[in-house]
Amino acid sequence: MGWVTDFAPSTAELNACIDCGLCLPVCPTYRATGDESASPRGRIAAMRAVDRRLVEVDDRFADVMGLCLQCRACEVACPSLVQFGRLMEGARAEVAAQLPDWRTIATRTVFGRAIASRSAVVLLSWVVGAVQRMHLAAALPGAAGKTAALRTIPLPVPTTAGHEWLPDGEPIGTVGFLAGCVMDQWYSDVHTAVIQVLRTAGYRVVSPRHQTCCGALAAHEGAAYDAARMAAQNVEAFEGYDLIVVDSAGCSAHMKGYGHWTEGGADLASRVVDANEFVASLIAAGLLPRLAGETPIAIQDPCHLRHAQRIVEEPREILRAAGFEPIETDPAGMCCGAAGAYQLDHPEMSEFLGMKKAVQIEATGIDIVASANPGCEMQLRTYLDDGIVVTHPIELYWDAISRG
């Protein structure tokens, strides 16, 4: 049968891989298993076999694609610049289209539909917030128990979309701000910190009402047409803004790839900046202050910040400006095992990687760690010892500004 969707990997994209194997040492699943099929090269070989109609998209193919974390570390190591994240999203779309089952339906319902509905996310957030306050989360089985690792969700549930914030003086510019889906309610403190920092720098911040989820989770889980629909809605919502600031690494990485997903997407992608890179540039330009201090802080690099966007030094500069001295925990930047919904489908691999990351952080003896992605933060909170605080670099920076 071959490929059936509009998002399938192309022959040219697959042939860009020269089978050199430089991706193998940086792939978390290959390092954990030693299995060629669990490497980027092995997965591309499986895609090529389907592309050439040598094999079908079957359960084995689905398993090979499903074990991938989509961390994109292989893209940094690849001398041929293979866009492996794009290939994986296309392969996952094919699995969803050709092997429909209860999971496919559930995935599209949650990550393709419900997560794009602000009212549905708000309702879910109310439920999770109530469960947290009744101290029931840790006792719940399976995925539900993961809510114990979340920050406490404010009640009533906050909403960023549809609001604007002005600086104290004349604005030096206006930026659009992505509210996102669960980021808006579950990590509202991060939004507040970023918005206040941008106001301090002199910007007017606007979060358009008719925006929606960025679509990253839908794309990663194979709900490609839903991801394309979300991208199209955001292209329309953010029209006219010179810059669009995004404070979740997974969201900013995905939106920078909108050119693949919808008409007008390339233009929007060219205007997207991750909050870390933007705030670091404002500090460098003297529009934001540098505060004194060298308090040690551990730092963890989200894959979609370090590998997908090549943003490495910027969060460290923000922490230094806040009076901290970043301490490296994993110079190689291996995935923590969160990877969106990965921990639900592959709990053993997710736990293996999460525990490994926790050991690296705890070895520093530092009780605060900075991470710029909600999924990573949740994963770290799950496996780190009690008493170790996980927070966003810009939250720490805003707290430092507020105090002094």
Please provide a written account of the structure.
By secondary structure, this protein is an alpha/beta fold. The protein has four domains: 11-100, Fumarate Reductase Iron-sulfur Protein, Chain B, domain 2 (Orthogonal Bundle); 106-149, no CATH class; 163-279, Rossmann fold (3-Layer(aba) Sandwich); 289-403, Rossmann fold (3-Layer(aba) Sandwich), CATH 3.40.50. 48% of the residues lie in helices and 9% in strands. The protein is built from 21 helices and nine strands. It has helices spanning 11-15, 28-33, 40-51, 59-66, 73-77, 84-98, 102-113, 118-133, 182-186, 188-201, 216-220, 224-237, 249-255, 265-269, 275-284, 303-306, 313-321, 342-345, 347-362, 374-383, 393-403, and strands at 163-165, 173-177, 203-207, 244-246, 272-274, 295-299, 324-328, 368-370, 389-391. The protein has a five-stranded mixed β-sheet with strand order 1-3-2-4-5. It has a four-stranded parallel β-sheet with strand order 7-6-8-9. Helix 4 (59-66) runs antiparallel to helix 6 and helix 7 packs parallel to helix 12 (224-237). The longest helix has 16 residues, at 118-133. The mean pLDDT is 93.
Which secondary-structure class do the elements indicate? alpha/beta
CATH fold-level assignment of the largest domain: Rossmann fold
Second CATH tier, the architecture of the largest domain: 3-Layer(aba) Sandwich
> How far do the termini sit from each other?
64 Å
Number of domains: 4
The rough form would be described as globular
Write down the overall mean pLDDT.
Answer: 93
Low-confidence stretches: none
Strand content: 5-15%
Beta-strand segment tally: 9
Strand order of the largest sheet: 1-3-2-4-5
Which range best describes the helical content: under 10%, 10-25%, 25-40%, 40-55%, 55-70% or over 70%? 40-55%
In DSSP terms, counting alpha (H) and pi (I) runs of 4 or more, how many helices? 21
- Give the helices and strands as they follow along the chain: HHHHHHHHEEHHEHHEHHEHEHHEHHEHEH
Radius of gyration: 21 Å
CATH first level of the largest domain? Alpha Beta
Q: Describe the biggest sheet? A: 5 strands, mixed
